[in-house]
Amino acid sequence: MSGLETKFLNLTLPNPFILAAGPPTAKGELVIEAFKAGWGGAVLKTISLEPTPLPKPRLHVIKSGRDKRGMLDIELFSNLSVERWEDEIDMIRASFPDRPLIASIAGGGSPPDWQEVIRRLEPHRVSAFEMNVSCPSFAGGKGEKLGQNPEALEKAVSWVREATKLPVIVKLTPNVTNINFFAKIAMDAGADAFTISNSLQGLGGIDLDTFSPLPSVDGIGIIGGYGGPGLKPVSLRCTANVAKNLPLPIIGCGGISNWRDAAEYLAAGASAVAICTAVMWNGIQIIDSLTKELENYLNRKGFASPTDLTGRALPNIVTFPDLDLSLNLVASIVNEICNGCGICVKACTSGAYQAITIVEDLAWVDLLKCSGCGLCVGVCPLNAVRLVQSVN
What we know:
The chain folds into two domains: 311 residues, TIM Barrel (Alpha-Beta Barrel), CATH 3.20.20; 66 residues, Alpha-Beta Plaits. It is 30% helix and 21% strand. The strands form five sheets. Strands 3-4-7-8-9-10-13-14 form an eight-stranded parallel barrel, surrounded by seven helices. A four-stranded antiparallel beta sheet has the order 5-6-12-11, with no helix packed on it. The longest helix is centred in the C-terminal third of the chain and has 16 residues. The relative contact order is 0.12.
């Protein structure tokens, strides 16, 4: 039987699922309820010396029909003071003295900005500090983030490292061309681990009646943070890149909606996963299905714990020259499943090699034209198309 207990740095989590810093961890009572529900740990909403007022509105859910594809937010850090957070953490610890509780922190351009927050919070038994380096840089140009400026990042991590013996986790931003470069800087400056990754910069949309960005405050808005399911491919790539190149443990974060997403992050090199948007959309009780289904999967694979899954996919993530370009695959239709809807025909006609037609109410593949691109497999709603080895 598999178990879900997870080791991360010097922390023991009952399972690898952590609440990411954000609205679900904006106050102590929310964290307590999440721990009661069974979450393995939590990262508190980012705490700074100066509380940040909350824009109203500040969230915009991005949809395609009824499907939620992502979310854009324009809020920054916690609106609670450090003094208030001292009380909130004490309240959490009174109920859960040992559950991993990570304080997300942010600061400015001098050591006291970071170190005073650490000095105030550490006596209240936080387990580690997570640095939010997606805050504005104190050494770069207008609009640049701390995590995008090498010199500023190195200084900030070194200041935090100087101030605490607790684990220091750096939450990297994906808004860079080479995340390994910045991860290496953070590691050399004293980071013990990474959270990968924070949100992408984005616009949620434009109101075509008022021409205001979405969301907007009285008609005007800012570039915000894009998270949710659409972030997953980017953050998963960042996770794998760092895991393949640096030795520090990783909390995978970005677009995790179900146990499969979480398992993929673990296989890509994460040791634990952090979730925010899915909790905001579906509630903290999703932890029940997350833990149950992940444990079922581990049992099916014969893995004793989530640790056995960590990094399993990394040897298979290579560069283009490593691919076997001699492999010849073609599309094959499962006639017993196909209903002749023609979706694959439209896709192949406009986006591939015009290899599929409808013959006697079923899809049919011209093997001389098929290039094995896989588009038809992805668009078929019935899973009636497979890629098989060509006999030619």
